[in-house]
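Example record used in the benchmark description.
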Amino acid sequence: MATTSGDLADDRVLLGRTSTAERVADILRTRIAEGYFPPGTRLSEEAIGGALGVSRNTLREAFRLLTHERLLVHELNRGVFVRVLAVEDVVDIYRTRQLVECAVIHDLGDPPFPLDGLAGAVAEGERHARAGDWRGVSTANIHFHRELVALAGSERTDELMRGVLAELRLAFHVVDDPHTLHEPYLQRNRQILDALRAGERTRAERLLSAYLDDSRTQLVKAYARHVPDDTTPPA
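Model output (structure tokens):
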């Protein structure tokens, strides 16, 4: 189990004067996405509440919000755990991604497209790759897909994909091989960006669809080797 009284205490300043459950949930969501709390980890109310300086009721409400987002699970008489996805969950995440991300590109309209955020995410990934920081590449890849969805200009779509991509990172942390998982897609991210820069929306959509198919196949195969059929958190 990850410790919670050290680094997490540094996040207390993020709460400011509004120590709401939503702000606590934001902090814990980020920490889960970073792998600070790996899948299967039991979250201690006492340790986390003490580190963040929030009440038990506030923390429980934050847990409830993250359970609703499918990042946490509550086990009767055992506590709250970071969720361990089933293989079927990973498949469903990719099904959702295919529907949403490809539709965003399909409906972009006429070029030119606002691609500064997408270009920044591509450059971020390539910079981390040159430094051999493959966890940084993983984070940059998530940024790439969030920026791609942001092209729709829809807060609802952004919120939906924030949750979907946060769930996806639960699978990444179980496989724990960011080099193998993400290196093949650095070039493909740039190809999608270049197609959009050229105004070739149909080609970009086709590239993305193939990209997601290949990524799903690769991740599901790797993930299935790391998780048992029963994905209940260990006692």
